[in-house]
Structures are given as structure tokens and as C-alpha cells.
Design a protein that fits this description.
This protein is of the alpha/beta class and about 170 residues long. Helix content is about 50%, strand content about 10%. It has nine helices and five strands. The protein has a five-stranded parallel beta sheet. Helix 5 packs across helix 7 (about 110-120).
Length: about 170
């Protein structure tokens, strides 16, 4: 059973926020709140997700600076066991071979395996789609292994984050 206040974030949470609705220069309070809740142990990401953040822009600088203490090692044996089970599950499903290969090469399965191991909720912008065969979507994987999955806004509400002034 997961804690309602323990979240592990997918790369798309950071990337979408940085390039769209929570740009660093427009909504610094969003980024500050991630660091505050991360330092309090309520949210974090894993090393394999952090590695997906590329480039030399403000997101990479923030990830390697203010947020670096909120990046967890995904190499625990328990995480590896969950990861292996997820890989087996994906291979047994009717996803395309390309989808299975992509799933094996990105951090998504590691993210869900880590969340399963520690009892966390996954935060992603992906949505559940029972008919999706061209991609192994994080919410589908979460549903298979009984890991809660929410979007950024549900996480912010759960944490009581308020951005801006009233």
C-alpha cells in the first residue's frame, strides 16, 4: 500500500513543466515546491529518470543542482526483482515488438519497479489506455502491478502546494 504523500516522478513531469506551463522564469514557486517536498522526503525521482534530462538548459542545471539530493538510486535488489517481473509481463502482452524494445531501453519500467518497491505513487503525464499496443504506457504498467499513478496536478493537490498569491 502506498503512502498518499510519497511520489516518484517521471521525466515528462519535469520536461513538460519546464517547457510549457511552469517555466522557470514564470513559476519559480513550482520548482521551489518540488525541492521543499523532495528534501522532506515526500517526492523524488530515480537516477535513470534524471539521466533522461539532457542538454544544458535551466532544467538540467536545476536537476543537477537544487534537486540533486532528491534523486534516488534505483539499483536495490528488490527494485531489480520488480523490474524483471515487469519486463516479463511486457513480453507476454500484445504490444508491438517496437513497443517492447522501447520499454526495455527507457527508464519507465525502472520507475514503476522502484515505486512498487518502496510503496510510492508514480507521477506522469501519460494516461491509461487499455487498447494501446504501440507503446507500453506507464499507467498501464502501474495498473498491472497495483502501483498508484497520478498526474502532476493531483500530486500538487495531495501535497497542498499553492502556487502564486490569492
Amino acid at each position: 500500500m502506498s503512502s498518499p504523500h510519497l511520489f516518484v516522478l517521471d521525466a515528462n513531469v519535469f520536461i513538460e513543466a519546464a517547457v510549457r506551463y511552469y517555466a522557470f522564469d514564470l513559476v519559480p514557486a513550482f520548482w521551489d515546491s518540488l525541492v521543499i517536498h523532495g528534501n522532506a522526503g515526500r517526492l523524488f525521482t530515480i537516477d535513470r529518470i534524471a539521466e533522461e534530462i539532457k542538454g544544458d538548459g535551466p532544467l538540467k542545471t536545476w536537476m543537477d543542482g537544487a534537486f540533486v539530493g532528491c534523486i534516488r538510486d534505483s539499483g536495490a535488489p528488490e527494485t531489480l526483482a520488480h523490474y524483471a517481473a515487469l519486463m516479463q509481463w511486457a513480453q507476454e502482452q500484445s504490444f508491438t515488438d517496437a513497443a517492447k524494445n522501447e520499454f526495455a531501453s527507457v527508464a519507465d519500467a525502472w520507475l514503476v519497479a522502484y515505486a512498487k518497491h518502496i510503496g510510492a505513487t508514480v507521477v506522469t503525464h501519460e494516461t491509461y489506455d487499455v487498447n494501446c499496443k504501440r507503446r507500453v504506457k506507464i499507467p498501464n504498467v502501474c495498473r498491472f502491478c497495483d502501483v498508484p499513478c497520478v498526474d502532476t496536478f493531483a500530486m500538487l493537490r495531495s501535497l497542498g502546494v499553492k502556487l502564486g498569491t490569492k
